[in-house]
């Protein structure tokens, strides 16, 4: 039990992590998403992907660990972010 608390203490947004796990996300992927800078931000506060620069999209993809991002176009980054 102590091991579980230790690993969960590294999660920035525990509620989001648990919700993602309940949806079937792997522990690694749920942790990656729950530990992003804006984890848990809701209500359209983030700008739509189409309004962001390729550099901003690349950074977001890097933050959540999308593989192959360096070779992706802006549209491919948008698709990868929406489907990750």
UniProtKB/TrEMBL annotation:
This is Rho termination factor. InterPro entries: DUF7218, Rho-like_N, Rho_N_sf. It comes from Aurantibacter aestuarii. It comes from the Bacteria. Gene3D superfamilies: 1.10.720.10. Residues 53-81 form the Rho termination factor-like N-terminal domain. Residues 31-54 are annotated as: Disordered. One of its GO terms (biological process) is DNA-templated transcription termination.
């Amino acid at each position: 039990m102590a091991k579980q608390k230790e690993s969960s203490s590294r999660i920035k947004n525990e509620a989001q992590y648990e919700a993602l796990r309940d949806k079937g996300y792997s522990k690694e992927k749920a942790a990656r998403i729950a530990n992003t800078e804006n984890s848990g931000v809701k209500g359209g506060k983030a700008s739509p992907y189409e309004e962001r620069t390729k550099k901003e999209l690349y950074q977001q993809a890097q933050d959540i660990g999308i593989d192959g991002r360096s070779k992706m176009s802006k549209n491919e980054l948008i698709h990868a972010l929406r489907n990750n």
